[in-house]
Design goal:
This protein is α+β, with helices and mostly antiparallel strands. The protein has four helices and six strands, in the order αββαβββαβα.
């Protein structure tokens, strides 16, 4: 891999193909600004206790005072061994990344898989927007 030493370029490089770096387009990236990373933000989402669930996912949410939504992941050991947990996280991140413009704006969404559910990108892509909209409706009812 070719590295210029700058962090941004290293983040953008996905792989090397025929000796040339393949760079992600900005629209296809999942920047840190779209992630819930701080424990205080996770705690706020859990404290507000607004959630929606189906057979695949549980989505908790809280308004974040931003013009965009962020994703937090909570995949416990109860889901399975490390490769399975990592697979779940990759699928949920990919679904969020590709559906970002369809999701409600201004919310922190903490997503976790249901124990025993089989990971499927197609099912997660169906489930995530529906559950996010339910969380927003519940949030609005609770905070009138």
């Amino acid at each position: 891999m070719i590295c210029s030493g700058t962090h941004d370029l290293q983040e953008q490089m996905l792989m090397v193909q025929d000796g040339l770096p393949v760079v992600a387009l900005d629209a296809e990236r999942f920047p840190r600004s779209l992630r819930v990373t701080k424990s205080k933000d996770f705690a706020r989402v859990h404290r507000h206790n607004v959630f929606a669930a189906d057979s695949m996912l549980v989505v908790r949410g809280s308004m974040n005072q931003r013009s965009y939504s962020r994703l937090g992941l909570s995949v416990s050991r109860k889901v399975g061994h490390a490769p399975l947990r990592n697979y779940w996280k990759r699928l949920i991140r990919e679904a969020f990344r590709t559906l970002r413009l369809e999701l409600p704006e201004g919310y922190d969404l903490v997503v976790r898989p249901r124990r025993g559910a089989k990971p499927s990108l197609l099912e997660i892509r169906r489930s995530l927007p529906k559950l996010a909209r339910q969380v927003v409706r519940k949030w609005e009812r609770k905070n009138k």
